[in-house]
Amino acid sequence: MEMERRIHHPRLSSVLTALGAVWAAVAAVLFLSAHRMEPLVVGEGVTSIRRLSEWHTPLAGTPGDTDVYVLDSGVEGAKVLITFGTHPNEVASHVAGTLMVENAVCREGMLMVIVHTNASGFTHGDPQEAYPTRFEIERPDGTRRWFRFGSRYTNPVHQWPDPTLHINPAGQVLAGIDSRNLNRCYPGRPHGFLTEQVAWAVCELIRQEDVDLFIDIHEAAPEYPTVNVMIAHERAMELASEALIDLEMGIPGFEINLEPSPLNLRGLTHREVGDSTDAMAVLMETANPSQGRLKGRTTEEQVVEGRDSAYTQAYQHQIEIQARGTGDEASRRILWALPYDSASGTYPLRFRVARHLAGIESLLNALTYHTDRGIAVEGIPDHGDLITQGIGAFLAPPPED
């Protein structure tokens, strides 16, 4: 019986080894580059930059720590915290936060802004979704600013493994992956998972700084029922009602709903911040087609222009159903949020950011009239100007690397 002959090719082995080393080096560079946060130009209104770990020291040096931009007028007044980037795939959120930091100036009271609330979520994407890792927005002079397109969840490299079931700090049993969903982990745990510690730190900031109003900025799929909405804790309902009236009376065609924070859905900011702190808590949602289940391939155009042929068809089909239907059929919905640009059937990013900033400004104005501790913030880009001029008109020139 012939012995098996083993053929050794030293040159081939060396080539394969070298290729393996090259691929390993490329992977390392890509991994590290994903941890480089998008550039943000600090505007004249920012008086200091603090770190979230100042309110919960175990976060220091972890991927959960993040910048807190403070806009302090030096004049006694109300204190407001706004969180953006809780879910880094909801891109209108952190783009709106960037515009706040680069443009807003506080003249009375103090405003605190967290642009990348779940910093870890910006360092990766969702498996099997083939998301772009970043997108760009052009300025009027032709220069471009880039932004991260991240994941809804904390990076599993930073928090692993997921439990089979997640009993969140509010006691609700959820799927294990929700242990990495920041907006299911409030009011947090000081010694819990990384995501729970981020939630704890946000609540500690609110408690220690005596924050009067907390606003959390989000997006959702157009077919999701809770979209185009303010969700308010019961202590914030009167304030949110005043803001809603201001929005719908002040901006022609602006439509937004107001819903109470559900008592049986736990771990979300509007419920837990309202219950565990003295702050009034409000969450806002806009419609984002790149989050939906009807969408096609996620591209930069879909993210920035809000253009997706499946949603355009769904919109047209809904119009046809309602036109020929009667009774319940006439009110049947495929989409709970109709396209913001109805002529093109799209959900442009500039419309979504404009809605968020208009909502924030209305809530700040309502707080001034609603309480004896007012806040005055100037420089927030105007709703109409954002739609006509685009986001790039309000972005600072890209910083030099």
Provide keyphrases for this structure:
401 residues, alpha/beta, Aminopeptidase, two-stranded antiparallel ribbon, 9 helices
Q: Could you explain how this protein is built, in words?
A:
The chain has about 400 residues and is an alpha/beta fold. It has a single domain (about 40-395), classed as Aminopeptidase. Helix content is about 30%, strand content about 15%. It has 9 helices and 14 strands. The strands form 4 sheets. It has an 8-stranded mixed β-sheet, with helices on both faces. Helix 2 (about 90-105) packs across helix 8 and helix 8 runs antiparallel to helix 9 (about 385-390). Residues about 25-30 have low confidence and may be disordered.
In short:
The chain is α/β, with parallel strands linked by helices and 401 residues long.
* Multimer state: single chain
Briefly note the structural class of the backbone: alpha/beta
Top-tier CATH class: Alpha Beta
Low-confidence stretches: 25-29
- Rg: 23 Å
Q: Determine the mean pLDDT.
A: 92
Order of helices and strands: HEEEHEEEEEEHEEHEHEHHHEH
Topology (SSEs and partners):
Layout lengths: L9 H25 L13 E4 L15 E6 L6 E5 L7 H13 L1 E4 L1 E5 L19 E5 L5 E5 L16 E3 L5 E3 L18 H15 L4 E8 L8 E4 L4 H14 L6 E4 L8 H8 L3 E8 L12 H6 L3 H16 L24 H22 L5 E3 L4 H7 L12
Parallel strand pairs: 3-5, 3-10, 10-13, 11-12
Antiparallel strand pairs: 1-2, 2-5, 4-14, 6-7, 8-9, 11-13
